[in-house]
Amino acid sequence: MKLDKRLSEWLLVVATAMLFASGCPVDKKNVAGLKMVKLETTKGAIVIEVNETAAPVTSANFLRYVSEGFYDGTIFHRVIPGFMIQTGGFTADMQQKATHEQIVNEAQNGLKNQRGTVAMARTNDPNSASSQFFINLVNNDYLNYAGPRNPGYTVFGKVVEGMDVADNIAQVKTVNKDMHQNVPIEPVIIKSAKVVSGK
Q1: Which domains does the chain have, with CATH numbers?
Q2: Of the candidates 56, 12, 7, 30, which has an alpha carbon nearest to the alpha carbon of residue 160?
Q3: Which one in 19, 23, 125, 126 has a CA-CA gap of 20 to 30 Å to 102?
Q4: pTM to 2 decimal places
Q5: pLDDT tens string 14-68
Q6: How many other C-beta atoms can be found within 10 angstroms of the C-beta atom of residue 102?
Q7: CB atoms < 10 A from the CB of 13, how many?
Q8: Cα–Cα distance for residue pair 31/20, rounded to 1 Å
Q9: What burial class does residue 82 get, using C-beta atoms within 10 Å of its C-beta: 0-12 exposed, 13-18 middle, 19+ buried?
């Protein structure tokens, strides 16, 4: 009886580990210790699982902005169907928010820019990410690290709930505003961003 129970528990652990390693969605209740951040948007809720082990600097940076309430009131300012949706830097009137210092690129961490993953946005400088991040709508393999000449974009988490919300955001109508392209005509706003579980 005890042996069967231990065997069942061991099989559950192994199955969960295999799902996690394969990149398949894992129920957040089955993975202890991983922080979850819930984005309450005007289109619905998105829950992000933050991978502090694979991307410690990036995760700490993201969680710092979350704890400060920085993302509250920011918009998805760049929306491209079949690619990604980007947020974390601008208010509804397209005013860019002041940020903390830029962080080092951790794109060599083995995490890939697959559908549903969350990665940092940056300029051409690999170490220029600050507050902005994006959700991959498809597998964007060319955004992965591929050596010094292609430093990639750091993945630090994945959507575990609300990918349908992300897909809906991707369908809104967009326009060009000044120097910014693919800006939703009707702002899609992050009403709040909070840690909802974890250590």
Answers
A1: 35-197 (2.40.100.10)
A2: 30
A3: 23
A4: 0.83
A5: 444 444 444 444 444 434 468 999 999 999 999 999 999 999 999 999 999 999 9
A6: 15
A7: 11
A8: 9
A9: exposed
